[in-house]
């Protein structure tokens, strides 16, 4: 018997990508609503309560509204919005978070799909804090650049549609200047930080791809850890994980640049440790496709785990 999957918000950027990744699979049945019924509360309620798993690709308030419609205790949900990423009763949808997280996701009724900036930041920070190399109470700075697809249909149009009222030909934009980006609470909670990190996001003139950078003044950290210790903590944490790779220091050491589009079309994440041991400095960089491991691919990975099929199915 195949599992019934409903994508609520399937016409958005993330929803469309999830549908593409699930199309043609024989182990599940995609169900949906015709365009005229997509905003009909009664029909949405019916779908949310009869599907085995619903994937919410909605604005935060609409996602909360959708969850409130669910009365069937067996109905399961993956929420790709920000609404439930730090909420009680929800399992964080990052299987690589620790050794038990895959099992938690597999048994969960409610799973919050991580944000693109957040999953990469957490992937860097959590293992270093857990290993005691980075103090939970320390000052952390995160710099990141994403492709403009991360801003959804409106931002895509502003970069691609010359007829759009807010069209721009700017090559690069720093934003979130009020230092209140919506991913910060998620990063703080799941990294284990005691204080919010200083997070500076930016958009480049490329459609998709992402680099997240966490600079480390090793000389100022307790014990003055060497770069090899930073790399070792990350490598041990992700050993044997299919979708997170920690690059060999020798390979990173020969690089002269990092392409934010390097993992586009995949559900992979690659972490690099770049360092200058003489100065006691390092930068850990995470590379993902913001629409892959940062959104649709991660949702499909979580869906696979919840359905009890190999996590790489369709990825």
Largest sheet: 7 strands, mixed
Structural class: alpha/beta
Average pLDDT, rounded to a whole number, is: 94
Oligomeric state of shown chains: single chain
User: How are strands sequenced across the largest beta sheet?
Assistant: 8-9-7-10-13-12-11
Number of domains: 2
Give me the CATH fold name of the largest domain: Dihydrodipicolinate Reductase, domain 2
Give the C-level CATH assignment of the largest domain. Answer: Alpha Beta
**Cα-to-Cα separation, first versus last residue:** 22 Å
Give me the strand/helix succession: EHEHEHEEHEHEHEHEEHEHEEH
CATH architecture of the largest domain: 2-Layer Sandwich
Q: What is the element layout, followed by pairings?
A:
Blueprint: E1 3-8, H1 13-22, E2 28-31, H2 41-50, E3 53-56, H3 60-68, E4 76-79, E5 91-92, H4 101-106, E6 110-112, H5 116-130, E7 141-147, H6 152-160, E8 172-174, H7 184-191, E9 198-204, E10 210-217, H8 227-237, E11 244-246, H9 249-253, E12 269-276, E13 281-288, H10 292-307
Parallel strand pairs: 1-2, 1-3, 3-4, 4-6, 5-6, 7-9, 11-12
Antiparallel strand pairs: 7-10, 8-9, 10-13, 12-13
